[in-house]
């Protein structure tokens, strides 16, 4: 028995370590505590989906982690050419607060559209990246649009855009693609900390410095669009009460210093 004892101990240690690591990986987000979705080292837990490229292809190293920051960069692009990209977290969520701290930096990638200068976003209640077409520009989702000022004009951030979706606002179905929040303008390369409160299919609130700058409810798929109808058939209806979280690459360099989530009890409001 003495000959097999060391092997047994090593095997047992390996097994216990595997069980512990598997348990953490299987349930990394706990209710009632802030959890970072970024590890500050690499893109573990995230999947890139960039237009015209296969899921998982991080074309030109668009998404990268450097100096503890998640950075979106275009130094490997000759021209942007509407190569819209999204970085998806590998789990779906329903009731939560998402806290994101970002800053726009540098200059827009050559060939980027004029409207995308200092423009990015967080896509919530989104479709799975596996359901996106190779040439699809944006996931069907509720977009929390983040914008930077140009140093001159007013330009709100934490706005709403609705690729393939609609919401209800002031008691009525709201179908315009984008609507502005009441936030102030953030010029330059300053850090901006935001929170988005998501409560399933009921209320969604965009906040800056604890102040609500936009609120709406009843996120839903837009039955005027073919792909949204396909998703509705799979999901059993238009209602959106959960989905993916993704971050945009939309032609302007941006840094994310914080992407944290707080899981909420769906029974509480």
Explain what you see.
The protein is mostly beta strands and 269 residues long. It has two domains: 1-29; 31-263, Sandwich (Jelly Rolls), CATH 2.60.120. 12% of the residues lie in helices and 37% in strands. The protein contains two helices and 17 strands. It has helices at 5-26, 226-235, and strands at residues 34-36, 46-50, 63-66, 69-72, 85-89, 95-104, 119-126, 142-147, 159-161, 165-169, 172-174, 178-179, 192-199, 203-208, 211-221, 244-249, 254-263. The strands form two sheets. Strands 1, 3, 4, 6, 10, 11, 13, 14, 15 and 17 form a ten-stranded antiparallel sheet that branches. It has a seven-stranded antiparallel sheet with strand order 2-5-16-7-8-9-12, with no helix packed on it. Strand 3 and strand 4 form a beta hairpin. The longest helix has 22 residues, at 5-26. The protein is globular and about 45 Å long. Residues 1-27 have low confidence and may be disordered.
């Amino acid at each position: 028995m003495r000959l097999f004892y060391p092997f047994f101990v090593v095997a047992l240690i390996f097994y216990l370590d595997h069980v512990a690591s598997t348990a953490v990986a299987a349930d990394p987000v706990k209710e009632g505590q802030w959890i970072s979705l970024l590890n500050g080292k690499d893109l573990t837990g995230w999947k890139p989906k960039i237009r015209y490229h296969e899921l998982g292809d991080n074309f030109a190293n668009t998404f990268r982690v450097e100096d503890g920051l998640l950075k979106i960069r275009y130094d490997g692009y000759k021209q942007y050419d509407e190569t819209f990209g999204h970085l998806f977290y590998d789990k779906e969520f329903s009731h939560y607060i998402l806290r994101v701290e970002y800053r726009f930096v540098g200059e827009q990638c050559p060939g980027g559209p004029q409207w995308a200068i200092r423009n990015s976003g967080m896509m919530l209640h989104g479709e799975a990246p596996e359901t996106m077409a190779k040439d699809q520009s944006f996931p069907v989702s509720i977009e929390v649009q983040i914008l930077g000022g140009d140093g001159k004009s007013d330009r709100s951030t934490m706005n709403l855009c609705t690729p393939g979706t609609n919401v209800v606002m002031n008691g009525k179905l709201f179908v315009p693609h984008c609507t502005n929040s009441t936030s102030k303008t953030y010029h330059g390369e300053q850090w901006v900390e935001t929170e988005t409160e998501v409560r399933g299919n009921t209320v969604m609130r965009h906040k800056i410095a604890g102040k609500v700058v936009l609120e709406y409810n009843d996120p839903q798929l837009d039955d005027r669009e073919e792909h949204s109808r396909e998703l509705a058939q799979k999901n059993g209806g238009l209602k959106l009460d959960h989905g993916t979280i993704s971050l945009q690459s939309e032609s302007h360099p941006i840094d994310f210093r914080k992407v944290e989530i707080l899981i909420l009890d769906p029974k509480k409001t």
